[in-house]
Amino acid sequence: MAPTGSGSTAVGPTLAVVARAAGVSVPTASKVVNGREDVAPETRRRVTEALDRLGYVRRPRFEATKPPGLVDLVLHSLENSGSGAVLHGVEGAAHDAGLEVVVSAGLNRSGGGRPERGWLDKLTTRGSAGVLFNLAELTPSQYAWLDQHRIPFVMIDPVLEPPPGVVSVGGANWQGGVLATEHLLSLGHERIAVIGGYRRKMCGSARVAGYRSALASAGIKHRPEYVRYGSLNETGAHRRMLELLDLPEPPTAVFVCSDKMALGAYQALSERKLSVPDDISVVGFDDLPESRWATPALTTVRQPLSEMAATALRLLVRMMAGEQPEGTRTELSTRLVERASTGPVASAQRAAAQVMPPSRCARKPGSSYASEACPSAV
């Protein structure tokens, strides 16, 4: 330790001192300080305890008296219109705040949605004052690195629920699920199915919960076979839609928890020679440009991605100035955008009868059910 005196500034221990106290090499101690993941858990624990015990001073990311001029925006990908909406919102809010934005995308080439090892080191070199993340998730060590280096950050529309204390901005997913289901109920549908994303994803589970709540409020009993989960892409939704159509009593309407997934449901319906909405009504979620280009144009729940991104940037600016947000979660309202993919239940009920599995028809020969459900019995 260097001595301190009148007019001097206290100097903390060097990284070499920390490394000796933890019984590791200086490069290993440096890896822990910089959030690298290639360190054994026990080694990381010893180094972290030594850092705290000796009072190691980590270099601040920006001078409190100097307005920060640079922030980072980290996107999962630039290959979809949702990322474009996020970028648009951040750019506009950053311009108003006098900030420059560095955009990184596809940081993990393996497709995991997490920043690659070494990206955080580049963040340090750039001297960014804060970070906006629009990613699937961060690793615990990356969260720890950001906290250790006192770098403010905000999550935009996080897929998984962030750890306690992490500031995030998202859409009102539960409310959106309610809106989508209530719209179908207003058209007379009662046999309403839902296709959600992965069960553990925060947004998808909230949308399915909204769907269930709307059914309960309408006095309609929840049917477990009408709730399907899959991957957040066209392929997964295509498979789940076919499963729904093969049920003994198929739904007359379906709420698909993303516009991208809804396109997969469209494909499955087309393969079964079913028309939207005459045969079955479909509602999506997000209001991406693709929803307007679909045939027919997709009724969907609008998630205000650009507004969410702009709100996140404004929160980040306050955090960079030393303010603490009142809460860790900010939600912006969603709203229904009605287009051509939803219609009354009457024609859909007749169409649903036409897609009954042949085995079901065979079990009830001569009955009124068979005469309605099986073309050969008519």
Using brief descriptors, characterize the structure shown.
12 strands, six-stranded parallel β-sheet, 43% helix, alpha/beta, 378 residues, six-stranded mixed β-sheet, 15 helices, disordered N terminus, disordered C terminus
Secondary-structure element string: HHHEHEHEHEEHEHEHEHEHEHEEHHH
Tally of helical runs: 15
Q: From the helix content, strand content and strand pairing, which structural class follows? A: alpha/beta
In spatial order, strands of the major sheet run: 2-1-3-4-5-11
Bulk shape: elongated
Write down the Rg: 26 Å
The largest sheet is:
6 strands, parallel
Fraction in helix: 40-55%
Secondary structure tally: strands: 12
How much of the residues is beta strand, in percent?
5-15%
N- to C-terminal separation? 93 Å
Kindly state the mean pLDDT as a whole number? Answer: 83
Q: pLDDT under 50 segments (min length 5)?
A: 1-10, 60-67, 109-113, 357-378
